[in-house]
Design goal:
The radius of gyration is 26 Å and the shape is elongated. It has 456 residues and is α/β, with parallel strands linked by helices. A hairpin with a 6-residue loop joins strand 15 (329-332) and strand 16. 41% of the residues are buried. Helix content is 21%, strand content 21%. The chain folds into two domains: 3-202 and 395-453, Rossmann fold, CATH 3.40.50; 217-380, no CATH class. Helix 1 (14-23) packs across helix 10. The strands form four sheets. A seven-stranded mixed beta sheet has the order 3-2-1-4-5-7-6, with helices on both faces. Strands 10, 11, 12, 13, 14, 18 and 19 form a seven-stranded antiparallel beta sheet that branches. It has ten helices and 19 strands.
Length: 456
């Protein structure tokens, strides 16, 4: 009799590959209502039984039959619980999804049920007629759900864990729960990393997962000007993560300085919506809005001369004595040549090259003085975000098993919706080590010419 493993709400396969990383075997059954998600899952888990069905309607007992279920993973949609929802009404249909976990647990009685969700799941309670949470009833439905699971004979434990503390290059924080009814102890993975590195390894920097062979293109040479909010974030980010940063991220032995920007939505005063590349990436969501900003630098010489209008302008020397940075502003040297500060939106960029330059940005890096002479921007690639989310390098997100390509936006959405694989791995290793059969086998490196090696 086989010890079955089931992944409910399987998505593109974050939890499933994490389980595979822990146990060396694929999940037996994966369920998701979204055909696109199932296609990505099937690409990477070809030996899994895939069910494209509504989680409330699927009859798991029909597929399980008389086999024993050792582990069930469940990550219900979190959007109607998350604080990211802001002040908008909540969707009742999504908020009740944890009850599908109870429904299936009652029918097939897995030994262990592992769950993942946003921390706000613990405030799950009734909504008023307009769809807003009733403040005085916060947590009522959460407590009812836990009580219902306990009524099936499950012991329960939960914790809020940060993925970066366990070796993932993302600071994604989530609520994790362990339910078990096999008499064994609930266990939690041991922390391996920390922000300061005291007593642990230091958090993994997301900069280690960037493709540095592609730095993008100059923001000053675009045919279509960047959106005003993006321009403002770039200026704010240059100030915060490069000029004012104690240790800016250096690329290629000092040839460039870089940081990450999120560049959609409105911008408040001083808002950079970014981060240093020396840190794990902040929680990745489903939007395709992550960019790499690279500021190119050159050594600063007091005898520096003005350049022609076909390249960014070099600084006028106003320095004296020891300094790290003097001042920074952006100059516009066509027509009236009006300047502007780095804390305001970049003025309209024309189609002609070389109309803007950073003036008087003087940095001192390891004893050498530099100036910024160009700024590049590009979106982060899905493959980079995949690695920052903790997926193995060989995990396929660019196509389905029929070799149909996925649009970039869908790839990013799958990553943003996914469980951090390393967290699934650590939780399963801690609670179900007896299910381990070996090591995960990497995906075959197949190209389009190898027809006979396609996944079945």
């Amino acid at each position: 009799m086989k010890e079955l493993i089931i992944d409910c709400f399987a998505g593109g396969g974050g939890a499933s590959v994490g389980i595979e990383m822990a146990l060396g075997r694929p999940v037996d059954i994966a369920i998701n209502h979204d055909p696109d998600a199932i296609l990505m899952h099937k690409t990477n888990h070809p030996n899994t039984l895939h069910l494209t069905e509504d989680i409330f309607k699927v009859n798991l007992r029909k597929y399980v039959k008389d086999q024993h279920v050792a582990l069930m993973w469940a990550s219900p949609d979190c959007t109607s619980h998350s604080k990211a929802k802001g002040g908008k009404p909540r969707e009742r249909g999504l908020r009740i999804l944890p009850w599908a976990v109870y429904k299936h647990a009652k029918e097939i009685l897995p030994d262990v049920v592992l769950m993942e969700n946003v921390e706000e799941i613990q405030q799950w309670g009734p909504l008023d007629e307009k769809g807003y949470p009733i403040p005085e009833k916060k947590g009522e439905d959460y407590k009812k759900f836990i009580t219902a699971m306990k009524s099936l004979g499950y012991r329960f434990g939960s914790r809020e864990l940060i993925a970066a503390d366990y070796g993932a290059p993302t600071t994604r924080k989530r609520w994790y729960a362990v339910f078990r009814r096999d008499g064994r102890e609930i266990r939690w993975p041991e922390q391996t990393h920390s922000a300061d590195g005291i007593g642990f390894k230091k958090w993994k920097p997301c900069g280690d997962y960037i493709d540095w062979s592609d730095l993008g293109s100059s923001i000053f040479e675009r045919k279509k000007p960047l959106a005003e909010a993006t321009q403002k974030r770039i200026a704010n980010g240059i100030k915060k993560y490069i000029i004012d940063a104690e240790s800016p991220y250096i690329v290629r032995s000092g040839e460039a300085l870089a940081y990450i920007i999120q560049y959609h939505g409105e911008t408040r005063a001083g808002d950079s919506r970014g981060q240093l590349l020396t840190e794990p990436i902040k929680t990745i969501d489903t939007s395709n809005r992550y960019g790499l900003v690279t500021a190119f630098v050159t050594k600063y010489h007091k005898s520096g001369v003005w350049q022609g209008c076909d390249e960014p302008i070099y600084p006028i020397d106003t320095s004296s004595g020891d300094f790290g940075i003097t001042a920074a502003f952006i100059t516009k040297y066509y027509k009236s040549g009006i300047g502007q500060g780095c804390d305001e939106p970049l003025h309209t960029i024309t189609t002609s090259p070389g109309h803007f330059g950073l003036v008087n940005v003087i940095l001192e890096i390891k004893g050498e003085k530099y100036i910024i002479y160009d700024i590049f921007l590009r979106m982060l690639k899905p493959e980079e975000l995949k690695l920052m989310q903790g997926f193995p390098k060989d995990y396929i997100i660019s196509r389905d098993y029929n070799w149909k390509s996925y649009p970039v936006a869908k790839q990013v959405a799958r990553i943003g919706n996914s469980v951090v694989p390393i967290m699934a791995q650590k939780l399963v290793e801690a609670n179900c080590p007896y299910l381990k059969v070996g090591e995960r086998a990497p995906n075959l490196n197949i190209d389009d010419s190898q027809e006979q090696l396609r996944f079945a």
